[in-house]
Amino acid sequence: MSQPTRDLAPASSARDLYGVELRRQRQLAGLSLDRLSDIVNYSKTHLHGVESGERLPLPPISEKLDVAFGTGELFQGLWGAVKREHTPRRFDHCLELEARAVRIQEFGASLIPGLLQTEAYMRALFTAGEPGLSPREIDGLVADRLGRQEILRRDCTPDFWWILGEATLRQVVGSPAVMRAQLAALLPLVNTRHSTIQVCPFAAEAGALMNGTLILLTLPDNSTTMYQEGGGDYGEIVDDRETVTRYVREYDLKKACALSPRESAAVIETMLERSEPCESPGT
User: Do 51 and 175 belong together in one domain?
Assistant: First the structure.
């Protein structure tokens, strides 16, 4: 049974205006959501969410809609209005999907992924990365990230697969003590019924994912959406099927180049042993 949609207010919301115009153009063209999904390579779920004002029409969907409907730059212009009206935190939509995902796959090139971070590690990251924030603001960010980790303890936990670039294990965040605790926290999740961690060593061949973060979120309807973040401040949600398929393949290639879970655990254990502080003379 379909869920009732909220009432749209196109006169006061650019986001709602976009949804209303999308539905209008689709109906004028005599297209079902299924047919439009095939044309623009976006899922029916995503298109319905945009029409109902529940999802943001993130690029490149506007360009594809203008081509599909022959509307010039109508939807591209509406997207500009949506951006000016509502600038979401880049990760918000990813978090919405993460909470519903049945499978979560992630590659981190240089930092431990958020779902695997200890409280001390994430606090050190926020303190170094946002020096203007007050302790209270950092407490809020830490609480939010710790809240995300409840997904690891759900009764129906998703299937998790993380690939960590070797740099994530070697880059000291906070202090050596913080990193020792972080490395130790990874070990119980390396190879379980619902989680796998692989280390991709420096010796592995360079690939398309080496300079950032990639998250692949598979939903109950078996659709996959990806979130990609490079070296800058820009993160992007994509559910264009052709693009997602290409990055799923890149992720699978990364798995093939990474160490096995057993070898990965051995690497983490070795680094943990090497990071142990030396005893002071006379102790």
Answer: no
The 10 Å Cβ neighbour count of residue 222 is 8
261 to each of 92, 120, 162, 188, 267, how far by Cα in Å?
31, 25, 10, 11, 10
Both 26 and 55 in one domain: the answer is yes
Q: What is the pLDDT of residue 208?
A: 62
Angle between helices 176-186 and 119-129 (to 10 degrees): 130
Burial class for 173, CB neighbours closer than 10 Å (0-12, 13-18, 19+):
buried
| Predicted local distance difference test score (pLDDT) of residue 3 | 43
Residues of the chain with pLDDT under 70: 1-6, 84-90, 206-211, 230-234, 278-283
Q: In the numeric block, which tokens belong to residue 171?
A: 């880059």
Is residue 282 situated within a structural domain?
A: no
Q: CATH number for the domain including 219?
A: 3.30.870.10
Is residue 219 within 8 Å of 225, Cβ to Cβ?
yes
